[in-house]
Structures are given as structure tokens and as C-alpha cells.
Amino acid sequence: MIIKQAEFIKSATKPAQFTDPVFPEIAFAGRSNVGKSSLINTLVNRKNLVKTSSKPGCTQLINFFTINDEISFVDLPGYGYAKVSKTIRTQWAPMVDRYLSVRKNLMGVILLIDIRRDPGKEEFELMDWFAKRRIPFLTVLTKADKLSRTKQQKRLAILTKTLERRKEDLILFSSKTRQGREMVLGEIAALLPSHAPGDMPS
């Protein structure tokens, strides 16, 4: 999969504000500060398509992007950061649940987990949502450059068991070294339908 064009379209908090479901859609989900923005920027070869921040909990909107004028990428708000307000924390689950429920053009989700952290209840809740809605998802272990190759493999083995996933279902990724970029793009391409853009099922 070769990305030649990427453009921010709009932000939203509720279905009435979502983009029209014209293109097949890939969503990105993960804990605050897990590296979603950095991953998307790395995939599209842009430094600042998605704004990054050192302060967790900043992205509280659903952000829509078009890729090659034929695919949509959707950056879902991060979760699990205790220092954001209680109102924001309680809004997250309904907002994401509504998105997952209504987007019939959603082809799959990229679930990001920091390779150094054990998954919490939010990750398992998301995976349960995916399973109930039969949404395919790929698990990407971010910030792999923070660990040596040996420690990467040890964490991969632990997370494979914890998440009850096959080792080939998890991809080691680093926005700094670009490790795993081509694998993620290949998996995204495999999720996309073969019919032409604009011909999405209603």
C-alpha cells in the first residue's frame, strides 16, 4: 500500500457530525499517549498531519482524514488518562461506542498498546466491542524503540498470552525507527474491500 496523499477533513463528537460514509474506513484506537498520532503521521509520511502532544489526554475528538482520495483514517480519542476531567472520561465510552455502532463503512480498527505496559480494562472492553460487532482489528505494540530487541521479544510473548492473540496478530512498531510501518500498511490494505471507493454498502 503506497500513500501519496493525506488530508485532514474534520473533527466530530457525535454521528451527525461524522463525514459521509463514502470511503472504506480504518480507525485507530488506544490509550492516551500511546502514540496514535505519531503512528498515523509515520504511515502517511507526514510530520504534522495529526497533531502530537507530550500532554496525555489532549485528543478528545474523533478526527477524520482522507488517504489517496479513496480511504478514510479515523483517529479516535485516547482513553484512560486520569488527569482529564471526570466529564471527559465519562464521555469517552459513549462517543466511541456510537462511532463503532453506526459506521457501516468501518473495515477494521488498529488497536495500539504501549509495548512496555500491560493492557487494562479499557483494552479488553474495546476488544469485546470489536468482537460483538464483528469488527476486525489489528494490535500494534508501539514505542518498540524504547526496548532492546531481546526485551521486545519478551514483551511480545507476554502480551500474546495476556491478550490471547497469536504472535502474528501483533506488530512491533516504532515511529522513531519506522519499525513495523510496512507491516501495518500491508495489514490495512488486507482489510480494505476490493470494490471501488464510493460503492460502499449502505
TrEMBL record:
<dbReference type="GO" id="GO:0005525">
    <property type="term" value="F:GTP binding"/>
</dbReference>
<dbReference type="InterPro" id="IPR030393">
    <property type="entry name" value="G_ENGB_dom"/>
</dbReference>
<comment type="function">
    <text>Necessary for normal cell division and for the maintenance of normal septation.</text>
</comment>
<dbReference type="GO" id="GO:0046872">
    <property type="term" value="F:metal ion binding"/>
</dbReference>
<keyword id="KW-0460">Magnesium</keyword>
<dbReference type="InterPro" id="IPR006073">
    <property type="entry name" value="GTP-bd"/>
</dbReference>
<keyword id="KW-0547">Nucleotide-binding</keyword>
<dbReference type="GO" id="GO:0000917">
    <property type="term" value="P:division septum assembly"/>
</dbReference>
<keyword id="KW-0479">Metal-binding</keyword>
<keyword id="KW-0131">Cell cycle</keyword>
<dbReference type="InterPro" id="IPR005225">
    <property type="entry name" value="Small_GTP-bd"/>
</dbReference>
<protein>
    <recommendedName>
        <fullName>Probable GTP-binding protein EngB</fullName>
    </recommendedName>
</protein>
<dbReference type="InterPro" id="IPR019987">
    <property type="entry name" value="GTP-bd_ribosome_bio_YsxC"/>
</dbReference>
<dbReference type="InterPro" id="IPR027417">
    <property type="entry name" value="P-loop_NTPase"/>
</dbReference>
<keyword id="KW-0342">GTP-binding</keyword>
<dbReference type="Pfam" id="PF01926">
    <property type="entry name" value="MMR_HSR1"/>
</dbReference>
<feature type="domain" description="EngB-type G">
    <location>
        <begin position="22"/>
        <end position="194"/>
    </location>
</feature>
<keyword id="KW-0717">Septation</keyword>
<keyword id="KW-0132">Cell division</keyword>
<comment type="similarity">
    <text>Belongs to the TRAFAC class TrmE-Era-EngA-EngB-Septin-like GTPase superfamily. EngB GTPase family.</text>
</comment>
<dbReference type="GO" id="GO:0005829">
    <property type="term" value="C:cytosol"/>
</dbReference>
